[in-house]
Amino acid sequence: MSKRFDLGGKVALITGASAGLGVHFARTLAQAGAAVVIGARRIDRLASLQAELEAAGAKAARVALDVTSAESIATAFGAAEVALGPIDIVINNAGISIVKPALEMPIEDWDSVVDTNLRGAWLMAQTAGKRWRTAKRAGVIVNIASILGLRTIGQVAPYNASKAGLIHLTRALAMEWARHDIRVNAICPGYIETEMNSDFWKTPAGQRLIDRIPQRRIGRPEHLDGALLLLASEAGSFMTGSVLTVDGGHTVSSL
Predict the structure, then answer these.
(1) 25, 77, 132, 159: which is the annotated catalytic residue?
(2) C-alpha distances out from residue 10 to 52, 57, 138, Å
(3) Domain 2-244, CATH class in plain words
(4) Which of 65, 88, 133, 245 meets the CB 3.0–4.6 Å disulfide criterion with 39?
(5) Contact yes or no for 24/221 (Cβ under 8 A)
(6) Domains of the chain, residue spans
(7) Spatial distance between the Cα atoms of 77 and 63, rounded to a whole number of angstroms
């Protein structure tokens, strides 16, 4: 059964791989046997992760990648293919958020969040999809959405909107591209502890948020591994257009 989750011989490209969940996803896919291309705007910030992956026996490459730029994406795909071969799996992980009341949100802040979280994922998916269709290759896209695409909180209107849009985009692309043997699915993480937010969860405000989660605990990056490997591997080969929620029951809570 474990062979169904094996990614040996596959090449995966992860966006937003310089920090947080992107780093964890790169490690998880490499441990499952994939060759890993890590992408971010600052390629120098990827050097230590590439070295770590290679030291563990994985094939790894790093590419400069700005998901808001179609030109950057095309260049990154070309560089990735030269380094490790054709891409089989795309993990659309790059994302940002700006915290401000909606009435005070400048247009440029709205554009920045939506351009990265939604337009960037669309550009990545379309670039991959065109390459796979031309080459008559199967492909897999996993979009990293959020439970805030399913339920909202205040002060992050563009983030809420972009993640809701990403969920619907996932379903639309899955419907259109199934005929090309391209699977498109999404993961909606709940609150996940990372290096960047770990201090917050120790504060009274952080604890109040944890108390709203039915399991009464914060998620860890490894809690996303099962969903990620399922959607990326042969084990999920009959899944497309699926949206997997990994949130400790948060979205089914009435709190």
Answers:
(1) 159
(2) 19, 15, 11
(3) alpha beta
(4) 65
(5) yes
(6) 2-244
(7) 8
DSSP-derived secondary structure letter, 163: H
Q: How far are the Cα atoms of 25, 139, 170, 189, 247 from residue 243, in angstroms, in the given order?
A: 18, 17, 8, 10, 12
Separation of alpha carbons 114 and 137, rounded Å: 30
Side chain identity at residue 213, one-letter code = I
Tell me if residue 94 falls in helix, strand or coil.
Answer: coil
* DSSP codes, 205-255: HHHHHHHTSTT-S-B-GGGGHHHHHHHHSGGGTT--S-EEEESTTGGG---
What CA–CA distance (Å, rounded) separates 209 from 229?
28
Per-residue tens of pLDDT for the chain, all 255 residues: 589 999 999 999 999 999 999 999 999 999 999 999 999 999 999 999 999 999 999 999 999 999 999 999 999 999 999 999 999 999 999 999 999 999 999 999 999 999 999 999 999 999 999 999 999 999 999 999 999 999 999 999 999 999 999 999 999 999 999 999 999 999 999 999 988 788 889 999 899 989 999 999 999 999 999 999 999 999 999 999 999 999 999 999 865
Q: What is the 3-state secondary structure (H, E, C) of 33-93?
A: CCEEEEEECCHHHHHHHHHHHHHCCCCEEEEECCCCCHHHHHHHHHHHHHHHCCCCEEEEC
Sheet holding 11-14, edge to edge: 60-64, 35-40, 11-14, 89-92, 139-144, 182-189, 243-246
Closest to 171 (Cα-Cα) out of 156, 186, 181, 191: 186
Residue 159 annotated among the catalytic residues of the structure: yes
- Locate tokens 């990293």: which residue? 144
